[in-house]
UniProtKB/TrEMBL annotation:
It comes from Sclerotinia nivalis. Belongs to the hexokinase family. Residues 11-208 form the Hexokinase N-terminal domain. Transmembrane segments: none annotated. Residues 219-500 form the Hexokinase C-terminal domain. This is Phosphotransferase. GO terms for biological process: glucose metabolic process; glycolytic process; intracellular glucose homeostasis. SUPFAM superfamilies: Actin-like ATPase domain (SSF53067). GO terms for cellular component: cytosol; mitochondrion.
Length: 503
């Protein structure tokens, strides 16, 4: 087998991940259509969940508050002391959520685990609150990045699990009450005052930290283990019932889009054989189809499945000498040296970032990463192997970024930052190309807070998103006025800010 043959085969697989300009425009139109349906009625997908949060942080807020962030595989506990001048002091702790807790039989297993971590955090950073019986109650913002039916700022019932969690006992229950019960059981002086998702927290953290004279952040997006977006919507556009209390003076409310479930019926999303197989092997087949193409939890698995297909070519032996260990239907055993390529969900998405970053002639950093990921001796990973893996990894990462750009662009249009036509008689969104040519309103500034390991560490992710923005006729060259700001730990710091605002 020649290196050229391997490269050609890899390029053929990579081509299946193309997400072209025409696909982007179709995606934007369908995305806006589903957003508007979600504002009009309760839906199981693209839920458009009202958060009952109506204010953007100004940067002048003061006080001490707590946050608990359950956004994926890690649990974070945070305390934030806001100084009232766009600055704050924060303490953080983080612990991995054990797999057995993610799949527990009872909700109390998870929420008691969270409460125990909160107490441990207090003992480390704020012991006086546990020692003083007369201490004031601290407000806590609970960042719970899973679909919920939010009834008020501090109440919401879990609709379904995502990101590898599967605790059936918790579905349909109020997650704030579940957490408060376990907090009270430990006698902690804490009140859960706000239920937040990570994207909303990111908005608040970025908005608080900006100079007081700056345009306030009105859109937040997460591109990490999972993905979601939150934006500021006019209350008049929310046609479905609002059950909870909220401040009506602003005329606006933050909406959690729950865009991981966009286009579950695959009307416009790109589909490859690898997407189909990944979905089939996931814990929620048929659901979260957008997330399965964008989030870090799934990108590594898409790469693994693609490499398995590449290696199935009888003329190709990836990582030379290990083809005999990749026979079809051979279960992993301790006797086989390379089990990773055969093992589902075994490839971490960080390898895509390493591939994109390595521009060296002989790709030694990436070859080392391949050998470590697939548990191979370094000599088994040739330059040709590395080039082939990189070709496919690049295609998967670029598609994820362009899909992310598509969704973010659609949100900007729906939020009124650029122009769109209203729904027509067939409930089909029409993108208004003839009125706003190549991004009229160039003076407008849109500030977007973003967080997550994918957008932070994947080289060029933002550039591919911006490339996608420019495709949209309503945006075009006005893309330069869109600010994307990485907000570190936004989901925890932002939740604490919201807890203070809600109190």
């Amino acid at each position: 087998m020649s290196g050229l043959y391997l490269e050609t085969a890899a390029t053929s697989i990579a081509a299946q991940f193309e997400y072209n300009d025409k696909d982007v425009l179709k995606g934007v139109s369908e995305f806006i259509r589903e957003m508007r349906l979600g504002l009009a009625e309760e839906r199981p997908t693209m839920c458009q969940i009202p958060t009952y949060l109506t204010h953007v942080a100004s940067g002048s807020e003061k006080g001490l508050a707590l946050a608990v962030d359950l956004g994926g595989t890690n649990l974070r506990v945070c305390s934030v002391d806001l100084h009232g001048d766009t600055t704050y002091t924060a303490h953080h702790s983080r612990i991995a959520v054990p797999r057995e807790i993610m799949l527990a039989s009872h909700a109390s297993t998870l929420f008691s685990f969270i409460a125990i971590q909160i107490k441990a955090f207090f003992l480390t950073y704020h012991p006086r609150f546990l020692e003083d019986e007369n201490t004031s109650i601290l407000r806590l913002g609970f960042t719970f990045s899973f679909p919920v039916h939010q009834k008020s700022i501090n109440s919401g019932t879990l609709l379904r699990w995502t990101k590898g969690f599967e605790i059936a006992d918790a579905v349909g229950k109020d997650v704030c009450q579940l957490l408060q019960f376990e907090i009270d059981a430990l006698g902690l002086p804490i009140q859960v005052t706000a239920l937040v998702n990570d994207a909303a927290g990111t908005i608040m953290a970025r908005a608080y930290s900006l100079p007081l004279s700056s345009t306030r952040t009105s859109i937040g997006a997460i591109f990490g283990t999972g993905t979601n977006g939150v934006y500021l919507e006019k209350v008049a556009n929310i046609k479905k019932p609002l059950y909870g209390k909220y401040d009506k003076s602003t005329g606006e409310m933050f909406i959690s889009i729950e865009w991981g479930s966009f286009d579950n019926n695959l009307a416009v999303l790109p589909v490859t054989p690898f997407d189909i197989l990944l979905d089939k092997e996931s814990i929620n087949p048929g659901n979260q189809m957008f997330e399965k193409r964008v989030s870090g939890m799934f990108l590594g698995e898409l790469l693994r499945l693609s490499l398995l297909s590449l290696n199935a070519d009888p003329n190709i032996i990836l990582f030379s000498g290990c083809n005999d260990q990749l026979e079809k239907n051979v279960p992993p055993t301790e006797d086989k040296e390379n089990l990773v390529l055969l093992s589902k969900w075994s490839v971490d998405s960080s390898i895509l970032s390493i591939a994109e970053k390595d521009k060296s002639e002989f790709m030694e950093p990436f070859r080392k990463a391949i050998s470590e990921t697939f548990k191979l001796p370094g000599a088994r990973v040739s330059l040709a192997d590395a080039k082939a893996v990189k070709i496919i990894a690049h295609a998967i990462g670029k598609r994820a970024a362009r899909l992310s750009g598509m969704s973010t662009a659609a949100v900007m249009l729906q939020a009124g930052h650029f122009s769109t036509l209203p729904l027509d008689k067939g409930s089909e969104v029409v993108i208004k190309e003839e009125v706003v040519e190549m991004g009229e309103n160039k003076s407008a500034t849109v500030d977007i807070g973003v967080d997550g390991s994918v957008i932070e560490f994947y080289p060029g992710f933002e550039s591919y998103m911006r490339e996608t923005f420019r495709i949209i006729p309503e945006i075009g060259t006005a893309e330069i006025n869109i600010k994307l700001g990485i907000t570190k730990d936004g989901s925890s710091v932002g939740a604490a800010i919201i807890a203070l605002l809600a109190g």
